[in-house]
Amino acid sequence: MQFLPRRILLAVCVAIFSISLVIDAKEKRTRNLFLIRVDKKAGYIDRTGKVAIKPIYEDAEDFSEGLAPVKIDAKWGFIDESGQMVIEPRFDWIYWAGFSEGIVPAGINKKVGAIDRQGKFVIDPIYEMAREFSDGLMPVKFPGKQWDYSWIYVDAVGRKAIDREFFGADSFVNGRAFVKVGFDEWALIDKTGNQVTKQHFGSKDSFNIFSEGLTAVKVKKKWGYIDRDGKFIIKPQFDDAENFSEGLAAVRVGCNFGYIDKRGNLVIPANFETAWKFSNGLAPVALATRSTRGLRYKSNGRWIQSCGLGVGSFEPQGYIDRTGKIVIEPIFGRAFIFNNGIAQVSFGEPPDVIGAIGKRGYIDKTGKYIWAPTQ
After folding, report:
1. CA distances for 289 relative to 282, 317, 343, angstroms
2. pLDDT for position 61
3. Is 300 helix (H, G, I), strand (E, B) or coil?
4. Which residues, 6 or more positions from 291, have their beta carbon under 8 angstroms from its beta carbon?
5. Among 213, 255, 276, 287, which is disulfide-ready with 294 (CB 3.0 to 4.6 Å)?
6. What count of other Cβ atoms lies within 10 Å of the Cβ of residue 300?
7. d(CA 135, CA 258)
8. Which stretches of the chain score pLDDT less than 50?
9. Distance from C-alpha of 275 to C-alpha of 292, rounded to nearest angstrom
10. pLDDT tens-digit map of 222-275
């Protein structure tokens, strides 16, 4: 998790930045095969670290619903877990999160639609952008409109499902979605397109919304948590906030992060420069040091806390348990979330370089490598 300006970067650079953030969004899907890169080629290992699919692809993404996107000769297709090509590479672009409910956004000839598991377009490629198909609907953007009502929702066969257009639109989760109704002004809607609450939010956490029934939103520079009815369960009081996972959520207090429970109590002190969500009982963190605690300066008679540039942490990262105890020492350049007992770690990925991919490997829950970092 990074400082508050991260959310501005996400809005501007989501397509590029997704390389770093897909880990967070996709960990909800248990995986049996894990992406590796060797000599700039992509392949997959199993949970023991054995190569299951040789690294022969120009690029690749993680498996979802039993299929993974792979790139050959600048075109994207899909393989199954045996490595067999089941959808031939012919697409210019594939949505990084892969299949969801049997559908994935795909692009061809500079237009975007969505395909099924046979590679057939079930939503015609006539749009400029699309996001994950979820809850039976997919947000899509009409081409040629930059700052206008250009986002709609379509169903699994491409029919317009909500009779409204929005400045921006996120995927539905459990019957709720955030839509942009003004500059950094977001409303919560149901599947009819009606606003669940009259209150609008200055920003929201796009990843894993309504995880465990709550989602983080910002009002007047402070973050809190609402339920599906838009009611604040934890009032806005934090300087930044992630969504809940395993009963805890990372929040920023001043310049540092800690973890709260669902009553809003800080149960793990704010001693971390960065903090991600819990998964498999562990969470990636970077310890706050004297050099990372920020500066206080006086402006117009008021003391202001400066927390850095918002580009993330240069401090080494490791893992804590639910008590806040370090259980895997912070020795990694970056540490990602555990999935099925395995976590990706990396070196040589400066946080101020958008989309940087360095040497990446995998560890088990003891911190032992099952795959030493390669690139």
Report:
1. 21, 12, 25
2. 96
3. coil
4. none
5. 255
6. 5
7. 32
8. 1-28, 297-298, 309
9. 14
10. 999 999 999 999 999 999 999 999 999 999 999 999 999 999 999 999 999 999
